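Example for tutorial group B:
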């Protein structure tokens, strides 16, 4: 399996490039990063809470979700705090709980006084009633503050398993009833920029979500059990009703169970989204959550098991229910890892599911007919892309009654195409094709070999390329080019495509060969594992070399201070031997933005593009377009860059994961949001020195606190107070203690 998209000698340079080109503000402000979203979706027509974990999310102020019909708002933001701040919160909590009975007693006395006031004058009754109401209101405020502090303490983890997930943001998301079903992208806007995008799904089924996990603790070698999640027994198994979507997070060593009732003969489809939600986890091996599904009868007898679906790590179970009764579905990680970013969505029910289509692509602008296979497709129909759809990969669905099937990719290309014609397994049976051509075919039987014959001329450079794995076919192709005598002129198994950012096994083959003489040549296509079936489809391009290029720009957002600049990395993906220079520009920039053009030479793979602004700030993020132009033969070719995130897999491999938008945000650092709460007294910070202060102001006493320590304590108090976690009285008391120590 080949995962390494970037050669080792280039890895350290790329890491440096990524740091330089991350699009951060000029002084090095950390880019907001989302590590997980839970739940990672919801049902049409619902409003529900969502929890995010990441870093650099302090000051989260807005939720941005692509498409229409989905909105969200920030409810609370928890920055990462330390043990000293937890000590302050515990002290405040104890004080509140000590004073709570007295407050409640005062409220009761006020209520009794109100009841006894029937014989008093109206003015006295009004005064007494006002006192009672004030006492009750004060008690409500105390209870609310106690609840907030207890929740803040409960979410605290002194030593997180992943510091990159320790910052928390709590949202409320609303999905309109008519919102289009499928994946979106969710970002967080902070006071100083935009986060990376995360997948967020709009679902069609009723949803069940387990309680969000608390931040996982770091596991010490030999004492791992101390960091395991302590879940109440009643939360291990949940009862659900089909059909539904299940949302959960898997902790280390944990198994999540769901119990449901099913009828004999039901054709259940159980699909999982895990790696699809978070494609790469940098500090985990193999680099993603690897879920396992086990379906059992109520007595524990195993009915079905899956730890993948074809070449995908996310498992799918297609199962006909053997008898009426209760069933239990288990999900866990294959090696029992777990953390709050091990997020999953399981869809279960008698739902339409497409297992294969044929063909898996066609010529753009030509009429198309698609045949499909799968489960529960009796009334389903799959419409091909519109006749005016352009070249590229389009996602198709098959609606069946009120449900919509899974999405399947379908490729449109400008070249003419044809269908494979059997038998074509030998040179004598080879199917004759005229170049250029796309052949739509599949492996029909075990050990199948498809051979295609074409006429070539000396000096022609011929490209033969398979499109299969990139279109979700399980085919692991191998290509050979031979002359009429069977002599192998070229051979290829896997060809790495940096543009396919979510693939880790680049199983599609590609050849680029200069023909030695005029004559007949043969392209042989097979499967390395000798497997076959209706799902083993492919599109084989055979043509003269068509030099071209594609671009990726990372990251997918850039945040700029007022009237400043930031950098983006532009990666060139060269095709069919193209080695010409590429001019990269900011195309049709919005008002107030510009950028100097840069060149990617024939020996370069990446360049840095500077984006500049004359604006003080932008009310909303704006969209940018990066384009590259190059001369290929007699043609001037322009290609727009696809936004992407540079993600690391398993400590080492780098992947450019496509995003839907490239966004820019300008902010004014002098106009950052003011605290929502101001103290009645402002602390006096000591000078910034490390001089040790004496106790009670006596130079002869034993040193106790440094000025730096006191300044840090005052900053902690100020931050907790502005988060509305301290009362005025407690805050003023602690500030006075600090000032007395100066």
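The residue assignment follows.
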């Amino acid at each position: 399996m080949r995962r390494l998209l970037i050669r080792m000698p280039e890895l350290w340079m790329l890491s440096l490039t990524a740091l330089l080109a991350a699009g951060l503000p000029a002084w090095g402000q950390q880019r907001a990063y989302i590590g997980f979203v839970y739940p990672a979706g919801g049902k049409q027509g619902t409003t529900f809470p969502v929890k995010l974990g990441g870093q650099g999310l302090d000051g989260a102020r807005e939720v941005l979700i692509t498409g229409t019909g989905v909105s969200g708002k920030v409810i609370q933001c928890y920055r990462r705090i330390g043990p000293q701040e937890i000590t302050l919160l515990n002290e405040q909590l104890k004080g509140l709980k000590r004073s709570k009975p007295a407050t409640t007693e005062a409220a009761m006395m006020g209520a009794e006084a109100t009841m006894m006031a029937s014989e008093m004058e109206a003015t006295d009754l009004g005064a007494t009633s006002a006192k009672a109401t004030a006492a009750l209101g004060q008690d409500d405020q105390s209870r609310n503050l106690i609840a907030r502090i207890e929740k803040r303490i409960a979410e605290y983890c002194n030593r997180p398993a992943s510091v990159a997930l320790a910052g928390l943001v709590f949202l409320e998301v609303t999905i309109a009833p008519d919102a289009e079903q499928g994946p979106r992208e969710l970002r967080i806007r902070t006071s100083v920029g935009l986060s990376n995008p995360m997948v967020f799904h709009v679902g069609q089924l009723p949803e069940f979500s387990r309680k969000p996990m608390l931040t996982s603790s770091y596991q010490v070698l030999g004492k791992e059990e101390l960091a395991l999640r302590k879940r109440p027994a009643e939360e291990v198994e949940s009862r659900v009703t089909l059909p539904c979507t299940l949302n959960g997070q898997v902790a280390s060593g944990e198994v999540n169970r769901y119990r449901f009732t099913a009828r004999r003969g039901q054709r259940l489809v159980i699909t999982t989204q895990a790696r699809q939600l978070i494609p790469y986890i940098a500090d985990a091996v193999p680099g993603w959550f690897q879920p396992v599904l086990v379906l059992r009868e109520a007595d524990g007898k195993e009915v079905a098991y899956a730890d993948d679906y074809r070449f995908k790590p996310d498992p799918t179970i297609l199962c006909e229910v053997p008898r009426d009764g209760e069933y239990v579905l288990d999900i866990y990680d294959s090696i029992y890892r777990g953390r709050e970013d091990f997020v999953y969505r399981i869809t279960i029910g008698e739902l339409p599911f497409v297992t294969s289509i044929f063909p898996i692509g066609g010529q753009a602008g030509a009429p198309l007919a698609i045949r499909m296979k799968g489960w529960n497709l009796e009334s389903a129909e799959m419409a091909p892309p519109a006749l005016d759809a352009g070249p590229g990969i389009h996602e198709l669905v098959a609606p069946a009654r009120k449900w919509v099937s899974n999405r399947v990719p379908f490729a449109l290309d400008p070249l003419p195409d044809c269908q494979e014609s059997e038998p074509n397994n030998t040179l004598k049976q080879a199917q004759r094709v005229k170049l250029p051509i796309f052949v739509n075919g599949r492996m029909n039987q075990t050990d199948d070999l498809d051979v295609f014959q074409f006429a070539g001329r000396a000096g022609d450079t011929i490209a033969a390329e398979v499109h299969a794995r990139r279109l979700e076919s399980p085919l692991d192709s191998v290509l050979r080019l031979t002359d009429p005598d069977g002599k192998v002129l070229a051979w290829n198994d896997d060809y790495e495509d940096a543009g396919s950012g979510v693939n880790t096994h680049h199983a599609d083959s590609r050849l680029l060969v200069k023909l030695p003489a005029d004559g007949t040549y043969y392209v042989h296509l097979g499967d390395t594992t000798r497997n076959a079936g209706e799902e083993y489809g492919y599109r084989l391009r055979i043509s003269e070399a068509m030099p071209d290029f594609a671009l990726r720009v990372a990251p997918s957002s850039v945040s700029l201070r007022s009237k400043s600049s930031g950098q983006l990395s532009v990666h060139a993906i060269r095709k069919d031997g193209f080695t010409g220079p590429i001019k990269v520009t900011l195309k049709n920039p919005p008002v107030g933005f510009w950028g100097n053009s840069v060149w990617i030479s024939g020996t370069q793979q990446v360049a840095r593009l500077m984006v500049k602004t004359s604006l003080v700030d932008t009310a909303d993020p704006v969209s940018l377009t990066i384009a590259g132009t190059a001369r290929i033969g007699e043609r001037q070719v322009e290609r727009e860059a696809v936004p992407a995130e540079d993600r690391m897999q398993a400590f080492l491999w780098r992947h450019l994961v496509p995003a839907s938008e490239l966004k820019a945000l300008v902010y004014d650092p002098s106009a950052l949001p003011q605290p929502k709460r101001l103290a009645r007294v402002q602390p006096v910070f000591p000078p910034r020195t490390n001089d040790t202060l004496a106790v009670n102001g006596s130079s002869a006493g034993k040193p106790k606190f440094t000025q730096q320590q006191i300044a840090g304590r005052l900053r902690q108090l100020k931050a907790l107070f502005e988060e509305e976690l301290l009362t005025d009285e407690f805050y003023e008391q602690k500030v006075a203690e600090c000032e007395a120590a100066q």
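Residues 1-28, 102-128, 692-700 have pLDDT under 50 and may be disordered. Compare this with the pattern of hydrophobic and polar residues in the output above.
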